């Protein structure tokens, strides 16, 4: 007799809603199994037929870290396209490659950690390359397009599940795991939350990743905004994945908790669902969760909430319905990888990302032009930390050879040629080596340490009477790279020997950078990765134990890079200087830049080229803006590192095959003096980004030139019940088919509070043939004109006139009109009834926002235990109050006055409170009536949380 077939469990029933299936599966898991799911690497549950799962697959501009893949332009380059349709297609291609690669390698994940939507507030941020724009509207538009491409169009099943990075207000690598961003409510709501919110509300986001830093004194992995804001923006279950190592940081670097059990419990309760910590070893996280459960810091319901959100994503990815998953790889789709369409899309994206910053008529280049292409990036196709491995590559030199012919293109890299002589008269020598490629992948599919630290199958450098001529590049800040005659970079492996073993600088710790430090009558060659100098041992060049064993070298320059540039430039009709950065050096994850200027080495090359030939074009290939002397150059272009097709794209733009139409996604400042402090996150108070900056930028937000010209006309604006309809026409008045990026901005003309000088409301990239005319219309919701009213803790549309500005950049306004909007008039703060939350100030000086408790709420304290002042405008004390009550912690004094006049009340705790979260109530007489501006001066380390009044 045949045994009856067991019934199909509900979680396997594709006809049931996902919610019911998740509930059923959750009910079948034991607490031990659910606890194991909380680590990034969730194990299989064989008794239920559930496979192992991991969160996280980097896919910022292509599938990263998993070997060969199509490499698209960096994220900031995609932002520079201002083209949502293009970016959506890029996301679609990346997700198709992720699926196809997973079919061959199960380590490729479908929960992709991208895109990065942190706003590019500060151009010295080391991870500038990862974001799209300094503007929340443009960032959310590009991010939404990319996530839609990653998600796919099927209404039920997702091709990949995108996770946005990094929640929240994260723009510094300096002390990134211990620094706190002070973000007042207006900045929080009008700026930092907006890019996340609009992307999440579009419905193609599976979750977010909290950032390493703290916001208002509280680690982002404990952010109360995850529940208060994020999870109210969608009905979907959103998965929150921790950043790598951040859960341990709560104890080990931030010292926010005394034990890991407390920290893990707090993060889980705040909304973190998956813990990325200790690599593939889940035992520590599992033990911490168990310890928290045993101590009563967590309940099983807390664990269930996190696991439910994880399972929701897995169901959406089709894991439990392989026969119904429209994205499951078949014989037809297994080849959705490095396809001709993807290669063409990479070229299209690279072309659309090129921004023409200045052109005095030297571009485009005529077909018979003799071109000298020079510079440290002229024959480079650089990758960054989140790139895949190149299958194809194109450098500017190769692109120009292809387009103009090798006979018309000359080349000078501009490196300095040097020899390093020891005190006994020998020179460093690179031995010939077999070029057999080293293994590049480890057991888990990550980059192999042998590749990161340099190959060990090659002989180390030695010293002899003749030595080898090395190519030296100074990337700024005294950081050098050295290359052997065969082009390989000197690198230090884990065994400490120096070999010519790397194709490019790279790795989490870059082992290919050095410093030459003056020492006596010579120099020490110090390896940056280990911090140790090198010396010539009997068995080869290696890092020394300490400075006492260091070799002292004489630097012998055999040829200066600018001399080679001068020779090449003098014989050409036009010089193209390709300058910029190496994405792994001086400005990258873990390292902020210190200046907007080009490294001195590259400035020397640029001066040499310009002196030899005034027809010098500067092509900047970089992950971030620079301050350059553009006024002395006839043409300047910029592109982010453009992926595999970067060189071809740049050559086609220089030749005029493509009219450039990229637009700057962030302000290019003229000088370092224009920048705020890196850790100053108050974009309003410090007048940051194009929204508030009152100086003269080098190039403004939205700027970009074309080989065509465009006329704007027929502006009309009609105010409806819910939106403003704005229409105008654009005509290509030039001689070439070209793209134009139309931009619509608004400005409140009579604001009651500081508002942006102008703010992007909408944009559109369109292609027009010569003489072609197009009508452009935007329906702008009235909510887009609102601001966050701190007096009433809500969005408010202020009635009055608003300027509508249409043009080709934030400063190139071609048409304007004014509309008058109805709204809610300003009302004084009802302080007599509800008091004041300290962080809801209108203006401040010398203060920062800190955490009121470890769970929620804000307080304000003077910076550096000094003194600061808070201003609250239009406080309505009604018919009168007689006393004030302050909720404070710490020690110090709070002094209150009206209209900036004499002190009305001064309050201090009798003794310091037991801790920063132990608040006491201080009361004093405070006679006031009517409406007044309230000033509160804080001294010492006093934390002010709330102010109450009574009559």
TrEMBL record:
This is Exo-alpha-(1->6)-L-arabinopyranosidase. Keywords: Hydrolase, Signal. Catalyzes the hydrolysis of a non-reducing terminal alpha-L-arabinopyranosidic linkage in ginsenoside Rb2 (alpha-L-arabinopyranosyl-(1->6)-alpha-D-glucopyranosyl) to release alpha-D-glucopyranosyl (Rd). It is not able to hydrolyze alpha-L-arabinofuranosyl-(1->6)-alpha-D-glucopyranosyl (Rc). Residues 834-950 form the CBM6 domain. The keyword Signal applies. Belongs to the glycosyl hydrolase 3 family. PANTHER family: BETA-D-XYLOSIDASE 5-RELATED, SUGAR HYDROLASE-RELATED. One of its GO terms (biological process) is xylan catabolic process. The lineage of its organism: Bacteria, Bacillati, Actinomycetota, Actinomycetes, Kitasatosporales. InterPro entries: Actin-crosslinking, BXL, CBM6, Cellulose-bd_IV, Fn3-like, Galactose-bd-like_sf, GH, Glyco_hydro_3_C. GO terms for molecular function: alpha-L-arabinofuranosidase activity; beta-glucosidase activity; carbohydrate binding; xylan 1,4-beta-xylosidase activity. It comes from the Bacteria.
């Amino acid at each position: 007799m045949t045994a009856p077939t067991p019934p199909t469990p509900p979680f396997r029933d594709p006809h049931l809603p996902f919610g019911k299936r998740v509930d059923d599966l959750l009910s079948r898991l034991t607490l031990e199994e659910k606890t194991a799911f909380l680590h990034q690497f969730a194990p299989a549950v064989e008794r239920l037929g559930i496979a192992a799962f991991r969160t996280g697959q980097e896919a910022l501009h292509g599938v990263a870290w998993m070997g060969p893949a199509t490499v698209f332009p960096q994220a900031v380059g995609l932002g520079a396209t201002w083209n949502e349709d293009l970016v959506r297609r890029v996301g679609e291609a990346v997700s198709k490659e992720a699926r196809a690669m997973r079919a061959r390698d199960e380590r490729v994940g479908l929960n992709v950690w991208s895109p990065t939507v942190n706003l590019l507030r500060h151009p010295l941020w080391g991870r500038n390359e990862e974001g799209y724009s300094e503007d929340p509207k443009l960032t959310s538009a590009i991010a939404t397009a990319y996530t839609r491409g990653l998600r796919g169009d099927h209404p039920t099943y997702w091709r990949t599940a995108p996770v946005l990075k990094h929640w929240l207000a994260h723009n510094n690598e300096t002390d990134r795991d211990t620094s706190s961003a002070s973000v007042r409510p207006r900045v929080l709501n009008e700026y930092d939350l907006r890019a996340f919110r609009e992307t999440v509300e579009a419905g193609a986001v599976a979750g977010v990743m909290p950032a390493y830093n703290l916001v208002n004194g509280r680690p982002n992995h404990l952010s109360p905004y995850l529940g208060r804001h994020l999870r109210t923006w969608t009905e979907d279950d959103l998965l929150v994945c921790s950043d790598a190592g951040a859960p341990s940081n709560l104890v080990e670097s931030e010292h926010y908790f005394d034990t890991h059990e407390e920290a893990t419990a707090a993060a889980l309760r705040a909304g973190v669902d998956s813990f990325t910590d200790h690599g593939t070893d889940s035992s520590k996280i599992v033990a911490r969760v168990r310890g928290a459960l045993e101590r009563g810091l967590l309940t099983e319901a807390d664990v269930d909430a996190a696991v439910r959100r994880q399972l929701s994503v897995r169901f959406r990815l089709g894991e439990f319905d392989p026969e119904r998953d429209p994205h499951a790889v078949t014989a037809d789709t297994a080849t959705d990888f490095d396809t001709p369409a993807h290669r063409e899309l990479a070229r299209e994206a690279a072309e659309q990302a090129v921004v023409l910053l200045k052109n005095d008529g030297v571009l485009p280049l005529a077909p018979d032009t003799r071109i000298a292409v020079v510079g440290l990036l002229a024959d480079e196709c650089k990758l960054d930390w989140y790139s895949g491995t190149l299958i194809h590559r194109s450098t500017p030199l190769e692109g120009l050879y292809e387009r103009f012919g090798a006979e018309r293109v000359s080349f000078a890299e501009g490196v300095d040629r040097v020899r390093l002589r020891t005190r006994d008269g020998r020179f460093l020598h690179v031995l010939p080596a077999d070029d057999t490629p080293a293994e590049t992948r480890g057991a888990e599919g990550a980059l192999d340490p042998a590749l990161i630290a340099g190959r060990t199958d090659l002989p180390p450098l030695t010293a002899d009477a003749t030595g080898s001529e090395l190519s030296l590049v100074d990337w700024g800040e005294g950081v050098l790279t050295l290359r052997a005659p065969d082009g390989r970079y000197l690198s230090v492996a884990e065994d400490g020997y120096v070999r010519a073993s790397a194709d490019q600088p790279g790795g989490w710790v870059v082992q290919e950078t050095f410093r030459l430090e003056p020492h006596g009558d010579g120099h020490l060659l110090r390896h940056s990765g280990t911090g140790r100098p090198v010396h010539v041992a009997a068995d080869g060049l290696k890092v020394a134990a300490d400075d006492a064993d260091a070799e002292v070298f004489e630097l012998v320059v055999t040829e200066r890079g600018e001399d080679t540039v001068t020779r090449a430039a003098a014989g050409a009709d036009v010089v193209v200087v390709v300058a910029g950065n190496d994405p792994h050096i001086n400005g990258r994850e873990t390292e902020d830049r210190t200046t907007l200027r080009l490294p001195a080495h590259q400035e020397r090359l640029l001066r040499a080229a310009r002196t030899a030939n005034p027809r010098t074009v500067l092509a900047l290939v970089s992950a971030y803006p620079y301050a350059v002397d553009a006024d002395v150059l006839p043409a300047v272009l910029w592109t982010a590192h453009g992926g595999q097709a970067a060189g071809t794209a740049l050559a086609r733009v220089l030749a005029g095959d493509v009219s450039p139409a990229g637009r700057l996604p962030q302000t290019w400042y003229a000088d370092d003096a224009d920048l705020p402090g890196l850790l100053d996150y108050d974009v309003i108070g410090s007048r940051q980004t194009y929204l508030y900056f009152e100086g003269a930028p080098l190039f403004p937000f939205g700027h970009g030139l074309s080989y065509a010209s465009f006329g704007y006309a027929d502006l009309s604006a009609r105010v409806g019940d819910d939106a403003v309809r704005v229409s105008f026409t654009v005509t290509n008045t030039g001689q070439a088919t070209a793209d134009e990026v139309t931009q619509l901005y608004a400005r409140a003309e009579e604001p009651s509070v500081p508002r942006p000088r102008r703010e992007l409301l909408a944009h559109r990239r369109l292609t027009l043939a010569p003489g072609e005319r197009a009508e452009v219309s935007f329906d702008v919701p009235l909510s887009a004109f609102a601001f966050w009213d701190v007096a009433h803790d809500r969005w408010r549309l202020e009635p009055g006139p608003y300027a509508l500005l249409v043009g080709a950049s934030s400063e190139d306004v071609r048409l304007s009109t004014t509309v008058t909007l109805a709204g809610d008039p300003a009302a004084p703060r009802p302080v007599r009834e509800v008091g004041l939350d300290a962080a809801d100030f209108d203006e401040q000086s010398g203060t920062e926002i800190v955490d009121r408790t470890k769970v929620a709420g804000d307080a304000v304290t003077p910076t550096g235990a000094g003194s600061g002042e808070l201003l609250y405008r239009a406080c309505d004390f009604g018919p009168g109050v007689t006393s004030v009550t302050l909720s404070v912690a710490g020690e110090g004094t709070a002094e209150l006055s009206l209209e900036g006049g004499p002190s009305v009340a001064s309050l201090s705790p009798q003794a310091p409170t037991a801790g920063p979260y132990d608040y006491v109530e201080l009361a004093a007489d405070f006679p006031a009536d009517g409406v007044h501006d309230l000033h509160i001066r804080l001294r010492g380390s006093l934390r002010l949380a709330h102010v109450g009044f009574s009559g």
